Amino acid sequence: MNSGRLELDGLAEGHSDVYYQPRSCRVIMGKRREFKCFVMGIATASISFFFIFMFTEQYDVHSSKTLPQFGDVTDRTYMNRKPLKTYEMDRSLSHECDKQTNIAFIKPHKTGGTTLASIVNRFGYDRHASFVICKYNRRNGHLRQLAIRSTSPGNILLPPVNRRDGNWRSYRYNMIGVHIRYNRTAMNSFMVPNTRYITILREPVAQFESFFNYMHLNAAVTRAGRPVNTTALEAFMERPDFYLPKLFYDRDKDSRNNQFYYLGFDTKFHEDERMINETIQRLEEEMDMVLITDYFDESLVVMKKLFCWEMEDVLYISKNQRTHRSEVPAELAEKIRAWNRADVLLYDHFNKTLWRRIHEYGPDFKSDLAQFRLHLSETFDECIDSSGLQNPLSRKIVYKAKKHTSKFCKSLTRTHLEMHNKIWKRQSPLR
Ligand SMILES: *[C@@H]1O[C@H](CO)[C@@H](O)[C@H](O)[C@H]1NC(C)=O
Ligand SMILES: *[C@@H]1O[C@H](CO)[C@@H](O)[C@H](O)[C@H]1NC(C)=O
Ligand SMILES: *[C@@H]1O[C@H](CO)[C@@H](O)[C@H](O)[C@H]1NC(C)=O
Ligand SMILES: *[C@@H]1O[C@H](CO)[C@@H](O)[C@H](O)[C@H]1NC(C)=O
User: Fold this and answer.
1) How many angstroms does the Cα of residue 417 sit away from the middle of ligand 1?
2) Rounded to two decimals, what is the model's pTM?
3) Which ligand is in closest contact with the Cα of 227?
């Protein structure tokens, strides 16, 4: 298991942003702002209709001129393209490799997504990409549970790079690297047409335990009066349907099968296995790459080949997360699996998909993986100041870049928030 080397999102971003985010997108969903939202909604709708009726003709002509100078936005044949299959990679390699530069990373919680986001964000930032980020969330740009719709560029997203004209119907984005709920219909309308979709899943018991702690789901148990001699997680899993409605901050919506929730799964189908399986099949068609946290390096090697990326595109600084991870007892693990059945089926499916792709990769896989890991450790030695690395009391290890290091090392060691800041500054109309 490699997951111990990843920086999990929570620890990277700090706990304070779980509950209360005064500037975040969640606030506009709050009750006090409902009226404002309603008025904004009416205004947006009117503007939409105005554009639809008045500028339908001009729109197409106009948009092709003003789209961001990034990626191939004119090739509409990509609209109906199938996801890339591993066995097609070699064929494309032998002719010319088609480097994929538009990436929508749907980032679930507690899956090592921050490390993957650092790869995606660095890749896009270096190429002047336009990112999907929440304009009400200056802190980290996450969209979290907000409903994503075709109208989102007009309502909740920062405009693309060098666009501040308000003509949001022609806004097109190259990258996604934040917490966001997947909605393909909506995303198709504002991502450039040849965007590749990726996500990452983690073994559901470990992931749920981590989610439970990070999102403070124990609060529901505490409020109801915690039974003696059990942990909050044990108590919760004893009666999950009793505790779930007691959660605040919309956690009652996204906690159960939370990985699948962020991939757009409709929560009314938790118990409907036929529907679960159908949605998994649809995702199999729609997702170009599903990485698996527990086989992170393996996943990156496959993705690198699939997208025709360079070695340096997928390098990352391995960041330890919680040093002491609690083992979940078998009986408790079974309860977690049963209640999060959709996540279990989802994970098992895409874990199989990954291993099938590794198989299809061919005999070079082992040596490519070994080479990648060698590069990872060399990069670490080259970039990281190893003095004073570990604070045994801290739950998180903070790596420091060496003092006089290369530009590449600096970009690798940027924290998630530093990276977000740079992206924000480039895209913000107020800069
Ligand atoms: C997804 O986006 C489409 C297009 O805007 C919208 O009609 C639909 O309601 C959205 N779905 C969800 C679950 O938000
Ligand atoms: C809780 O555990 C302690 C120590 O194992 C035991 O002495 C006590 O009787 C238990 N209390 C209950 C209510 O089971
Ligand atoms: C759903 O898929 C799983 C795994 O492939 C399978 O075991 C199960 O029978 C399927 N259930 C339904 C209702 O199709
Ligand atoms: C993932 O799939 C592989 C190959 O089928 C299997 O050996 C492994 O146990 C699976 N991992 C998990 C965590 O289920």
Assistant:
1) 29
2) 0.80
3) 2
